[in-house]
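Async update (no meeting this week)

Hi team, since we skipped the sync, here's where things stand on the single-chain job. The sequence we agreed to prioritize is pasted below, unchanged from the tracker. I ran it this morning and attached the output directly underneath so nobody has to dig for it. Comments welcome in thread, and please keep replies under the output.
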Amino acid sequence: MQDRNSNIPVSDYCDEGTSSKTTEQATATVEELKGRADDVKEQLAASGKRTVDQLDAQREPAAKTLENAARRLQESGERVSTATSRTATTTADRLQTTADYIREKDIRTMMDDVQNIVRRHPGVALALAAAAGLLMGKAISDRNN
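Output:
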């Protein structure tokens, strides 16, 4: 075997024992790094699963909140003018549809649906993301003041 940086054979400045020991150390280091990488991978997977489980746990409360808002809109729509009533009813129906969707779909399915919508309508998705960012920034700013 020769040193990569010169034409001097490794055996000229390194005996077999040293070469073998260096190889063993390198192998041990690689195995240790693989073990650490596996540990990190497992920790990330567990963290991701916990996050998905937490999001899944929030689906039902979110659906109930939307249903309650839909019901209140329906009730208030019955007490106002016809045009306002139609708007309240339409909004209530959409909230109910959203509540049903949240209740019926798991987080992974919802994420797939969002990704498909973003692919089909990137401009709208970008505008909504910007608006959401502005609203969140304003909310955080107001909370700090």
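Quick observations from my side:
The two ends are 70 Å apart (CA to CA).
The first helix runs from residue 10 to 13.
Reply here if anything looks off.
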